[in-house]
Specification:
seven-stranded mixed beta sheet; alpha/beta; 2 domains; Rossmann fold; about 400 residues; 14 helices; 15 strands; about 40% helix
Length: about 400
């Protein structure tokens, strides 16, 4: 395998990319108005953008818009055809939801659908509103929608740690990542607090309670930073995809990209969590790799490997399986192909000639790439090894 020219695109990946692009070309376009939390003006911005498109002659309707009794937002919703909501009876309550079938039958160019992470009432065709939106997109209809950062699956736990509030309504990160356009709706924490005090977000009574809990200035600042960072990562990924599609070989100095190498052992769960936290603190993208060799996994090892894969998915870490008996070279080759700037590997429990040989092999392969080799288990102790090219690679053990 060492003789393979890695500058050539993988045929299977290229075919899958072409098929995916062909299929998606038939879909409508998804535009997300994205913000740090409620009250920043996502729905208002969505309606303003819709008015601008309507002036150009686009056929735009409202499928579901929640104005929250805000006058400026209510005023902007005027002038659009409104699809009546559909009623569902839940216990003793009648709940109104978006009428998915009516929207598809109407077949506009653009439909406005607020609150993408919303959970539908029991009896609806889909459990979540983002699934309704996917069906609309598949019918060739463009969708404008809104989303807060706390509703991303990979960020919900972090948001709970920051605010002390558990977010129940979430959606998979891939919905956000695959959007055709993401527009950040951003105001400063002081501006948002001023809007709250003026009753422009909630009633005065509810605003006071909100400021004392979720909307503390420190919370808002942290959520704002998170939202802006996610969008910056999205732009960086778009650059990565462009460079990879045009066969421009990496690494490209466009940002930090972590690669965590996992195996079929339990310590990989700690490594994945540690790497995810590191990626967040470093403002880095992250993915995982498992190198499959000739070793035949027993049932216990297979079970643990599946657990490791599931945890990676839960953490929002994309993972790949590579078949190669040269584990070290496979990891480094993949890191270069994916423009990874850091490689994270597990700390060997026993230090002997074999483990030191593997470390030296890593250094040999990464000497032209400037990757770092990091262990996922502390306490950390920094070692520095000089190699023939007078380049230092820090090793964290």
């Amino acid at each position: 395998m060492s003789g393979i020219d890695n500058t050539r695109p993988d045929p299977d990946e290229l075919l899958a990319s072409l098929l995916s692009e062909e299929e998606k070309s038939k879909w409508g376009k998804l535009r997300i108005f994205f913000g740090m939390c409620a009250g920043v003006g996502k729905t208002y911005s969505m309606l303003k953008a819709a008015h601008a498109e309507k002036l150009k002659g686009s056929d735009i309707i409202i499928g579901y818009v929640e104005t929250h009794n805000r006058k400026e937002t209510s005023d902007l919703s005027e002038g659009f055809e409104l699809i009546p909501r559909k009623s569902f009876r839940y216990k003793t309550t009648v709940v109104q939801e978006m009428d998915l079938d009516a929207i598809i039958a109407r077949n506009p160019q653009v439909v406005l659908v607020d609150e993408l992470a919303h959970t539908n009432a029991p009896g609806s065709r889909h459990v979540k509103r983002y699934q309704d939106v996917q069906e609309i997109l598949k019918n060739g209809i463009n969708v404008y929608t809104t989303l807060n950062v706390q509703h991303l699956e990979s960020r919900s736990e972090t948001v709970a740690q920051i605010t002390g509030i558990i977010v129940r309504e979430t959606l998979p990160d891939e919905i956000f990542e695959n959007a055709d356009e993401v527009e950040v709706v951003d105001i400063t924490p002081d501006e948002l607090l001023q809007r709250l005090s003026e009753g422009k977000v909630y009633t005065h009574e509810r605003s006071k309670e909100a400021v004392e809990h979720f909307f503390r200035k420190g919370n808002i600042t942290a959520l704002r930073e998170m939202a802006l960072r996610i969008v910056a990562d999205r732009v960086d990924k778009q650059l990565h995809d462009y460079l990879q599609y045009n066969r421009i070989r990496g690494p490209w100095k466009s940002g930090l990209h972590l690669l965590v190498a996992i195996d079929y052992k339990e310590h990989s769960t700690r490594l994945l969590r540690w790497a995810k936290n590191l990626a967040y603190s470093m403002d880095a993208n992250i993915q995982a790799i498992f190198v499959e060799t000739q070793h035949k996994l027993n049932p216990k090892e297979r079970e643990q490997l599946d657990k490791n894969f599931n945890l990676a998915k839960h953490l929002g870490i994309k993972f790949r399986i590579i078949t190669n008996n040269e584990v070290v070279k496979a990891i480094v080759d993949f890191a270069q192909k994916e423009n990874c700037t850091h490689i994270i590997v597990g700390k060997p429990r026993v230090r002997n000639e074999v483990t030191m040989f593997l470390i030296l092999m890593f250094i040999f392969w990464v000497q032209t790439m400037r990757q770092r080799i990091i262990s996922g288990k502390g306490p950390l102790r920094l070692l520095s090894l000089q190699i023939s090219l007078n380049m230092s690679l820090p090793l964290y053990w």
